[in-house]
Amino acid sequence: MQTPFTSSDDAIANRKWFVVDLEGQPLGRAAAKIAHVLRGKHKPSFTPHIDDGDFVVVINVEKVKLTGRKWSDKLYHRHTGHPGGLKTTTAEKLNQRHPDELLRLAVKGMLPSGPLGRAQIRKLKMYAGTEHPHAAQQPVKLDLGTVLNKGA
Length: 152
Known about the structure:
By secondary structure, this protein is an alpha/beta fold. It is built from seven helices and six strands, in the order H-E-H-E-H-E-E-H-H-H-E-E-H.
């Protein structure tokens, strides 16, 4: 008997939509669980080289929690591409300017690099308030406490 593999067509047809409320959630733990769902590791049909994950809509992303002094001590670096163009900002300033960027960078670091990871990060939708335009997809509320333990 051969091991059944999920094809790309099956994976696209079986995608679900989940909504996650990040109010008061720690950034790293939430990012790990969201990356788990985006990769599709919560499904029995997980195949490492297939984009089998589900869509995740994150609301209240600006209310994410960082512990300790990470708001002032955690630094994010980017480069402009010009000589001497290294720009550094703290987590607090990044959260004020682009609240979704903290979570996007955390989740992106937990996904594979390359075309597969880029396809998976595109299924992450983040919004600063409680409103989102994905009501037509009928997203199911995802409890982050059960993602890694029992499955979604």
